[in-house]
Every structure is written in C-alpha cells, then in structure tokens.
Amino acid sequence: MREHVDHETLHRTAKYFMDSGRAASHEEAMGFLGRFGLTICVGGDIGTSPHHQGALLTLVNTARRTLLGGIEVAGLPDCANLTRLAPDQPLIQAVRSLGGTPVSTIRENWPSALIGDAEPVASSAPCWRVTWDGWRGGVIPIRAGQRLGERGGIGLAPALAAAVCAAEAFSYHAGDHPMAGRRAAGLSLWRPGRDWLVMDHDEPALVYLPSRLWLIGLGNLGQAFAWLLALLPYRDPAEVQLMLQDFDRIAPSNDSTSLLSFLADVGHRKCRVAADWLDARGFETFVEERRFGPVTRRSDDEPGAALCGVDNALARSALEEAGFELIVEAGLGAGPQAFRSISMHSFPASRSAAAIWSRQAALASESYEDQPAYRALKAAGMDPCGLAQLASRTVGVPFVGLIAGCLVVSELLRRLNGGVALEFASGTAAALEDFECGILDARPYSAGHVRAQIM
Fold this sequence. Notes:
This protein is an alpha/beta fold and 455 residues long.
C-alpha cells in the first residue's frame, strides 16, 4: 500500500531527491536514504573525554536523521557519560537513545568515521578522522595521516567536527560532490574563512560565557542552539536564564531536521519540549508561546541578547523592534541547489534587519510541482492544496543547521573573549573554506555573562 505523505510527514531530506528530479516518488527518495549508513569507530579515550563523547553523541544524533540505513558504533566501552547531553545515562545507553546501534563487527562497504584513538577500517569506502582543536573542527580523510590536537576546545568544536562529518557522509552517499570523502573539510569559529588546519595562536581559552539569552524559533536552528549551549563549559547551568519563544508543535517531519525532536514528541509544543530538555540539564528556562513579530517587546528584566533561527522573513525584519541589545540570527538556503547555504547576521549593524528582509517577505517561494515525484502524487489523488503545501516545504538537513548554530553561538563567545565581532558570515557546508565575513566595530557585550569552567 502506498504510504501517506503530506507537508507534516514528509522527510525533509527525501525532498532533496524529489525536488532535484532524481527520485520519481517519495518512496524512491526514502529508498535512497535507506541505503545510506555510517560506521563510527571510537577509541579507548572515549571513556575519559567529555569532548570525544560530545563529538560521538552529536554525530549519532545528527547523522541518524539523514542516513536512514543506520548509524553503527564500534568500540564502545562500558563507561559513564561525561557530557550534559544525556544526563544520568551510561554512554552506550545515550548512543542507543539517540538512534545509534553499538556493534562488534564493522561493515566494510560503509563509510566510517574515527573518533579518538580508534584504528582505521579496512574498506574501499571513505574513512574520516573527526578532529578538532581550540575553536576549529572538521574531518580529514584517514589516508592523509593528520589529526588536530583535540585538546580541550570550546565545547562547540567537537560538535562542529561531527556536523561536518555528517555533511561529508551525506554528500558521499548522495554523489553530489566529487571530493566528498577525499578532502579535508572544516571551519575555524575564531576566524571563519581562515585555514582551519593551521593553529591560530590568537585563539583564547574560554573565560566568559553568555548567561541570559532569548531563543527565537525552536525548529532546526533553535534546537541546534540548545544542543550547543549544553556543550559549553558552564560551572553551573542554573545561573543561565533562557527565554524560549515558538508557537508551533512538533510534526513527524521535524524528526528529520531538529536535534531535540523525536517521533515520540509529535504533537507537543516545540517550546515545551526544548524547555524540558534544557531543564533536565540544569538550565533555567522561560517559555513564550506566541509568534515573534512586530508586536513583540522585551522588558528590562528579560534577556537582552537574542539568538534567532526562524525562516520567516516578516519576523526577521522585525528583529530590531523588540528592544534587544544584541541579536545574532542565522538563515539556511532552500531548494536542491542551495539547502547547504548558511548566512549569519548580527544587529545592530550597518544595515537594519528591516532593510535586509522586508523585500523578501513579499517574494513567493519556488515551486517544484512539475518534478516527477509531485506528478506521481497528483496522479495518486493528492488534492491541489495538499500538493502545493508539500512542494512549498524546503529541503532540510540537521547538519547544516548545526554548523549554522556553531557560527551563531560562537559569535557570542568571540565577543565575550576578546575576538572580533562579525556583522555577517556567508557560505555553504559544501565549501566551508570559502566563508565570507564582514567585521563590525561593536560595543562591548553587556547582555550578561558568567565565568567558564576551566577544562
């Protein structure tokens, strides 16, 4: 029997193959994803390093949403979980709860990723070293024999490396980038666009962390912000106040894009799911379940720094009207050619949010209803309204949202720890070395901070 698919149940990565015309149906697109898999091999140091564990749990959570053939983890010891990502769970249980499968044998025909001191896999498929140091993270093909120091880092760097690994694994399986699996790929969060493999002696250790934040939108990007905040070295998360704003409910499709969304959460408010997750990790949360827009106003006792992850141009154009001291927002590209694109803006800046997005609010989104997969749905009886809703949804993948989240959160960390302020950063997960950035002469960060725990 043909499966039911609509704008709420559609797997957002399957839409990539539908919109590009590579799949003649949703079933065929899901069949592609069902053949995509990844083996993660971990070394003995996974048992003692919260950073290696953070990389592992982030990679499992990110990759399992797009590589539907499975995420298998080899070499897992019986050890405690040292991160805030899965409190009160041993590491092996945390891996399972996020969708990974511990294994003792390795599939030689699957690509693989090495974390820590794991040994390379004998395979003709790509094998990546997931590696990081300081503010830099990414992957290096194992044949290059290179590995970064993997010392401390800022908490975000291991997660960034994991997101890049998921991106490269997807590109390899999808066959849409000839260098996937054959190149080093990564990013410096201290200086985006610089060579991430080269140590930057200006990179500081973290001293200060943001303590009062307003998260606007709890979808793909907003949930990435929450995941990354849990990886930062807070001494006591109870000192951190987070206002969460979103009006929407979790749909089945969110399981394919958003790191805190699971099928068991379908129908629940995104704000409440995110708040429960953050509360369990010790943060203090407040919930605002109204749309963000021109009528939104913060009071003086509410967080003055906002992280915005909404994809609505009308809401983004109103960002500066709410009375925030600092706003950092990210947007993701749409469609089969641009879904890996990332843009980040901060405000106040030389251009206002209204000037950037007011014109976009009136633009119609591109339609893909003429592609074979949508013609097949129409022939099967889908009504025109449902077909238009389905075709209007954008391609979505969690690894791009997580890379964008790293850029957004690191913007606060740079400003708090003596780095430059960026007015914008623009690039693509397909070519991280080509990020373009604009430096801003910004006033000192004054939206609340706490001292970081020395790691």
